[in-house]
Request: fold
Amino acid sequence: MGSESTNDILVHIEAGVMTITFNRVEKKNSISTAMYATMADALIQSDSSHAVRVVVFQGHEAIFSAGNDIGDFLNGPPSNEESPVFRFLHAISAFSKPVLAAVCGPAVGIGTTMLFHCDLVYAGDNAAFSMPFVNLGLCPEAASSLLVPQMMGYHRAAEALLLGEPFMAEAALEVGLVNRVLPPLETNSYTQAIAKRLATKPISSLIETKRLMKKGFTQTVKERMQEEGASFGRMLKEPAAKEAFGAFLEKRKPNFANL
Ligand code: COA
Reply:
């Protein structure tokens, strides 16, 4: 594999490191169906490629990702396990080699939940993590209903998932979601440097160590993702989500009074 690119996702491979860059800044790096498909394909192909030893996800210094493209949710919601969003989630959660993320600015929805499937996360001091599924009439995805309480403890998880308000880089550091907080302009380059260091290590040891650390959770994570996916798909079609998405697109506050 060489380096390849689409409009909104850039995939670049160099010295054993595959960097996947969100490149849709004008739409706050929200993730469309095509972007999920590109990322899923890149992960699936590179898992068995000798050219890739480490993967890095990065965004822009002012925005990591605004999460799922809301227009896509309205027009073409994911309908089954083969939908690009679910292919991406399965690919990142099952990826056998180290996955790193460099996060600056807002990381909304899947922009945060995908990080629970990364091995190392570096955050700019402007990073703001949020999982506003309830505010959108939805429920958690990416096995976050399992992994967030596991990482943060139940009450902090309830705050993050029931209230859905953003928490900043320092709070994410405290709960163990991020490894280190850096100035935003240094976050991508620092993450690349760590990735390059990892890429020089014996790949079989990296893979086996990651497998052993995750052993015991893999099946549970998969099952939770499926259960969440079924609820999420159903809730997307219900009035609360329609009201939330309509309100976002019409730039008004949602009204859940009767929902
Ligand atoms: N899907 C589709 N478009 C999105 C988007 C999303 N998730 N997030 C932002 N955009 C678009 C906006 O519609 C806007 O488009 P326009 O310029 O054509 O009007 C553009 O990106 C800029 O967004 P804006 O909201 O003006 O930027 P901001 O700096 O004020 O706020 C965010 C940034 C990320 C806090 C805010 O955009 C946001 O909350 N986005 C929605 C997040 C969300 O609910 N995601 C779904 C999770 S499941």
